[in-house]
């Protein structure tokens, strides 16, 4: 019997044009996902800066304005340094209770009892926990002539649990550039450098580094700590 050609299943494959269209669509989807991820991270960094960092700076300034001294200092014989000396820090409930006793409203943070902590996602989607403390450290400042620096005690906020990209973003917003050795925001351990390396080095890690070493892209991103110098 004659066979109807229209009833025979077609074995025709994709043409080059059809494959090209499919690849373009896939590229657009991947690109949109990457852009969306970057926008989400930027929004997180903006919220961290405005809702947490700036809120703690305001709380600190209100404490000083209301008490005439800094957290942990001796009211009767103030030194002007947090906790009365360098390399001493006030953290967690001690910091929060000091603020509340002075009538200062705490930033939201993670909630009651954790106002000095902030949770965000790193570039790999893993949760990270920032902790802020206040203290005093030796700080390198210009002295006498161009290129000369001397150490002076300065009050700081210490931010722990920063991914390198978040630290670099905060550094740029506070100082206008990324420089862990100079400016108002510096990497812990580099705030007292009397000489700036040439060429200037970035922060000690980046988001390609893992917390425990190795190269697994699913591991937690390496973390750094930063000091933010206070104005008083």
Please provide a brief summary of the model:
The chain is built from three helices and six strands. The protein has 232 residues and is of the alpha+beta class.
Q: What does it look like?
A:
This protein has 3 helices and 6 strands; from the N terminus they run H-E-H-E-E-E-H-E-E. By secondary structure, the protein is α+β, with helices and mostly antiparallel strands. Strands 1, 2, 3, 4, 5 and 6 form a 6-stranded antiparallel beta sheet that branches. Strand 3 and strand 4 (149-162) form a beta hairpin. The chain is globular and about 85 Å long.
What average pLDDT do the residues reach?
85
Compute the gyration radius: what is it? 26 Å
Helix content: 25-40%
Number of DSSP E strands? 6
Q: List unreliable stretches of 5+ residues.
A: none
Q: Determine the strand fraction and express it as a percent band.
A: 15-25%
Tally the helices.
Answer: 3
* Overall spatial form: globular
Oligomeric grouping of the chains = single chain
One letter per element, helices H and strands E, the order comes to HEHEEEHEE
